[in-house]
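Lab notebook, page 48
Experiment: co-folding of the full assembly
Goal: obtain a model of how the components sit together before planning crosslinking
Operator: M.T.
Materials (sequences as entered):
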Amino acid sequence: EDQVTQSPEALRLQEGESSSLNCSYTVSGLRGLFWYRQDPGKGPEFLFTLYSAGEEKEKERLKATLTKKESFLHITAPKPEDSATYLCAVRKAGGYQKVTFGIGTKLQVIP
Amino acid sequence: NAGVTQTPKFQVLKTGQSMTLQCAQDMNHNSMYWYRQDPGMGLRLIYYSASEGTTDKGEVPNGYNVSRLNKREFSLRLESAAPSQTSVYFCASSAEEGNNSPLHFGNGTRLTVT
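Observation: model returned without errors.
Model output:
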């Protein structure tokens, strides 16, 4: 069964304190791994797609990396506006390319 | 561009009542999806439509029906609401089901069934 596990469930950082969020997955035939940001009361907002091990993507203070078993979302010198829940999702190959979501990591950045 | 628009934003139903959640996208996407999000469970797929004229069940379809009205619109209907259907419902769209395009989500409908 496809599984996506995110850790930690919650993370509290001081402004400027860099850290990483983890997404470990088990899926046969990975077609892509997605990172989303979700603000309270809003829908998930797409951040990155990673396709193969070794790939990296960057956007402002965020960098996503991918290995064969996990992905990391590195947050460098975070600001309070980076506070949100970050969701990881994987898409597998097949007749219907099912997308499986993790529960998310709730990040709080304190000024 | 508005992206994916969902209505209503909030709804309270009594057990046994019916309602339809509306979703429209203006990105000319072929594929559309309905998810529910519950605490501690992540997003779960209810139904999807790979292209106009087709619909298929996802992980948790029981108690729901869908209609792909045209390329833009995809509605979700609860025929007889139950307290277990209290959730936040998200509609999403993507360019193509067959490629690896990401999902784009609306801002959700918060449904409470009493």
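Interpretation: The two ends of chain B are 36 Å apart (CA to CA).
Next step: discuss with group before ordering constructs.
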